[in-house]
Structures are given as structure tokens and as C-alpha cells.
Amino acid sequence: MWLRTKMRGWHSRSGFDKIDLYTRGTLYSLVWMTVLSQSLLTVTRPVRDSGAPAVLIVGTVLTAIAQGVCGTSLAAHAVEGYLGRRTVDRRFIGLGFVLMAANAAGLLVLCSYTGVDRFPELGLALGASVVPFITPFVLLVPLWASVAFQAAMSLALSGGVALAGGDTSFVFGTMLGSALGSGLIAVTVRLSAWSLGVMAKLRDAQDVETRLAVAEERLRFGRDMHDVLGRNLAVIALKSELAVELAQRGNPAAMDQMVEVQRIARTSQQEVRDVVRGYREADLRTELAGAQGVLRAAGIACDIQDRSGGRLAPPVQAALGWVVREAATNVLRHGDPRRCTIRLANAGGTGVLVVENDGVPDAAGAPSGGSGLAGLRERLAALGGSLEAGPVGGGLFRLTATVPGTPSPPLSPSSPSSSLPQPSSQPSSSQPSSSQPSSSPERRGEGPGGHHSAFTEER
Predict the structure, then answer these.
(1) How does pLDDT run across 91-103, given as a tens digit for each residue?
(2) Cα–Cα distance between 309 and 82 in angstroms, integer?
(3) How far apart are CA 411 and CA 35, in angstroms?
């Protein structure tokens, strides 16, 4: 049960979170593996039988453990500092250095009791004693400073071995081993942190791309509204000024001008309604292509199987377009999918859309509490359709939407021809029926160009 819970937690993480956890886990494991190895070497039989004080042996082991605790915390801070998220206190770095020096000094003092001949693992223990500090330190300083520190540390360790009575070959072996070992660890740690930094920048770039796409769509909608309203509002303002001047002179043509202003305003209202309706409706082909592009960009293989033949009714395609949009969003948000299949079929005019993805635990229940699927069910119910969603076993999640080819009639004659829910920009019911743009014969077939021509004649 515990393992299954941990596996679910792992699969629920995003790709960046997995790499972040793997990188940090590798650094922490490296620190504690070296702490464990040097602690075991410290309590071997030659050391215990050498006459060294028990306080010295225990103190050396406790210092190694304290260095492991400090090194783990320092590694966590170093990763955050390398990614530019926070700064590391220099006093904390100083504490790690002091613990490393005390640990290495304890090993050298033990060697003075046992002798180099009876403690041949001294070089390995000394190399392991510097790893808990080297691991985070290489992320906190520039590359040249890291290389200089490792060289100085290798010389210091070899000098300590020489003072402990080691011969030339042992001293040289200690210096070479510590230099190569610390260099390999430094390269590994920096490459791991660099990979994590690249993934963090990629995630930030994807977030920026998403925000830019939203901003671009808002700008597009704003441009459409400006194109529709800007021209007509300018004509309304000028005609209103002209009507005021005519009214002040007692010219009856002022009434004609105000009627024209009323006509342009109602035409503008209908144009705005058309813009909003087009903005809110979803095109099935566009949504399928967009979902495939977004999922592939997120590292999810997306296969689209279209067997509809392009013969579905426009209201059915619009409704299924909304389903594709919501389904793609759910695939990105939930689980850890690697594959997604979208199947579209035409069953005698009835549109059937099936979206299936993996990466869902078998014990997961049907989604609840969200408004996305509930809104889709309401939207499809208005067309006589249905929506089913839930896990089907084998780590698969399936969403099935069915929309009949003969949608339900609109609730009122004034409703737009599209059977999708429309924006609430319809005129108030308190207006007379003659004020509707489609009920005045004199306005049929006129566009914004008619507004300018009428104003030119009055000028």
C-alpha cells in the first residue's frame, strides 16, 4: 500500500518536478553514501585495537554525521542558489567547511594511532570526508574557484598523510585519488544542476508562451471590437452633432438624423453580437489541430483518427470543438500521460468523439468537483447529446461525447441560428419589436459604408 501510494505520487508529478526530485535525491544520496563509508572505515578492527581513545572514534563518527546533515541542507540551498531563486548565507558555508576540516583532522589523528600500514584505507576515508562539502560548494562558486579549492584540498590532505607517517607513494596516491574523485564529483554535480536549470528555463518559457498566446488572443479580440465599433461610433458622434445643430435652427431634418443614429447604433449592436458569437464558438478542425500541437509540445504523443468524412452539421462540430478543448486541458492537468488518442466518427449524422489517454491510476475515480465537464454536459444536453468520462482500466481514461445530428430547436425565434449558448448581449425585451435590426426593411443589405454615404450627403 505504501509503495503504491508513492508510485501514484511519482506519476502525478510533472516532468520538471521529476527531474528536480531525481537531481536533489542524487545529491543527497551522494552525501550520505560517503558519510556512511567513512564512518564504517573509522570503526574497523585495526582502528579499535590501535589504542585510540573511544572518545576520538565516536567524535569522528559524529562529526561525519553532522557534516552529512549540514551537507544535505547546504546542497538544497545550493541548488536553489544555482537556479537563482535564493542566496546562501556565507556563515552556513563556513560551518560546512569547519565540519569538513574537523572530520579530516579526526581521521588523521586516528591514523597516527594505528599507523599507515594498519590503516591503508586512510586515503579513501579522507576522500570521502570532503565530499559532503564539495558537493554543494561547486554550485556556489565559479568554476575556476572550484578547481582551485579542489587542488588546495588535495594538497592539504596529502600533506596531512605525510605528517601521519605515510611514505611517498601513499602520499602521492592520496593526492591523486582525492583530486580525481573530487573532480569527478564536481563535474557530475554541475552537469546535473545545469540540466535542471535548462529544464527550469524551458518550463518558464512555456509559461511565458502560454501567457503570450492569451494576450495575443485578447489583442485580436480587442482589434475586432475596435474595427467594429470605432468607425460606427465616430459616425454616430458626428451625426449627433449635426442633429443638434439642425435642432437649434428648427430644421425638421434633425429628426431624420437621429433616426439614422438609431439605425447605426442598432446595426453596431448586431455587429458586436456577431463578433462575440464568433469569438466564443469553437471550430472543430481548429480545435483538433490545436489540441494535437499543444499535447505534442508537452511531450504527449497525440493521434487523431477522423472518420467523420467532414459531414457533421455545423452545430455538432461547434459543440464537439468545445469537448476537444476541455479534454485536451484535462489531459494536460491530470495524471502523467504519454499517449492520447482522439477518435471522431459520424454515426448517421450523429457525431461521436472519443478521447483516450494513459497515465491514470486504476484506482482513480471519475472526476468530480470541477466545472469543465459539468459545463460540457450542459452544453451538450442543450443539443440532445451526452458526455461520459472515467477510467476504463489499464491506466486509461476515456471521455466519450455524443451529439445528434438534429439539434434541439432554439428556445425563442430571436435566438441566433447556432445552437450553442450565445453571449448575453441580446437587446432588452423592453425594446419594441421594430427596433430589431432584422425587422426594419430599410436596413436590410446596408453596411457600415452606408453610414458614411448618408453622412456625406447631409454634409
Answers:
(1) 888 888 999 889 8
(2) 54
(3) 75
DSSP state of 434: G
What the block records as the C-alpha cell of 245 is 445643430
* Measured distance CA(132)–CA(27) in Å, rounded: 9
Give the DSSP letter string of 89-108.
-HHHHHHHHHHHHHHHHHHH
pTM of the full structure: 0.49
357 close to 343: Cβ distance less than 8 angstroms:
no
DSSP assigned state of 410 = P
In the 3-class helix/strand/coil scheme, how is 25-49 assigned residue by residue? HHHHHHHHHHHHHHHHHHCCHHHHC
Looking at residue 222, its amino acid is: G
Nearest 5°: phi and psi at 252? -65, -10
- Which of helix, strand or coil describes residue 351? strand
Residue 115 one-letter amino acid: G
Quickly count: other Cβ atoms within 10 Å of residue 215's Cβ: 10
Say how far apart CA 137 and CA 148 lie, in whole Å.
Answer: 12
Instruction: Note whether 127 and 186 are within 8 A (CB).
Output: no
Q: How many CB atoms lie within 10 A of CB 278?
A: 12
132-154 per-position pLDDT tens digit: 988 888 888 888 888 888 888 88
Q: Which three cell numbers, joined as nine digits, stand for 213?
A: 498566446
- Reduce the DSSP state of residue 459 to 3 states and report it: coil
pLDDT digits (tens, 9 = 90+) for 209-221: 878 887 887 887 7
Per-residue cell: 124: 579513501
**343 pairs with which residues across the strands?**
305, 354
> At what angle are helices 253-280 and 168-248 packed, to 10 degrees?
160
Q: Strand 386-393 vs strand 396-403: parallel, antiparallel, or unpaired?
A: antiparallel
